[in-house]
Amino acid sequence: LWVLCLLLMVVCSAHTARILAILPMIAKSHHILFHSVLKSLVSKGHHVTSYTTIPLAKPLDNYTEIFLENIVSAEKAITADQLKVVLNLSPIAFSTMLFKEGRRIIEKTFENNKIQELIKSKEHFDLIFLETSFAQEPLLAFGHKFKAPVITLHPFGSFSLINTIIGNPLCLTYVPDFSLAHSNRMTFYERAINSYSI
């Protein structure tokens, strides 16, 4: 009898989840983290459906990938020279540019036919992974649609907007905003700039 109870407990605890990932950001660097997390979940037996702009290099079992074409067109892709200009923007101009681009990406995402089909679908998901930085918060609505918990992924270090969204404290006196080149040993002037940029 004890063996039967133990066997039933193991069988009941070994269920896998259907996981939805919606990752429309067009930066390959963001997807390095996302792909690692999703591949790890697949290796544990979960089924992942990923709507993405950066596909995996090799297909996996239990991993369905839906490519979101038309999120970025060839003429909108950033060049190396443009990236140098972007990285030299002031913190305010840099944040403004990120949010304008994020809004454009999210509008293109919701206009995408495959996302429209997902919105109208009757599919069931147990968990949803999203990147919700840079004006991508409307994606959180998928948690309500599928009545599933949402895990938001963020591919790089902490910065003021994300800290505010997830409830991390803002330590302006010694944690520089990601858009600044300050160290954690800021002068009074650098702290003032850090506070202003946030």
TrEMBL record:
<feature type="signal peptide">
    <location>
        <begin position="1"/>
        <end position="16"/>
    </location>
</feature>
<dbReference type="InterPro" id="IPR050271">
    <property type="entry name" value="UDP-glycosyltransferase"/>
</dbReference>
<comment type="similarity">
    <text>Belongs to the UDP-glycosyltransferase family.</text>
</comment>
<protein>
    <recommendedName>
        <fullName>Glucuronosyltransferase</fullName>
    </recommendedName>
</protein>
<keyword id="KW-0732">Signal</keyword>
<keyword id="KW-0328">Glycosyltransferase</keyword>
<dbReference type="GO" id="GO:0008194">
    <property type="term" value="F:UDP-glycosyltransferase activity"/>
</dbReference>
<keyword id="KW-0808">Transferase</keyword>
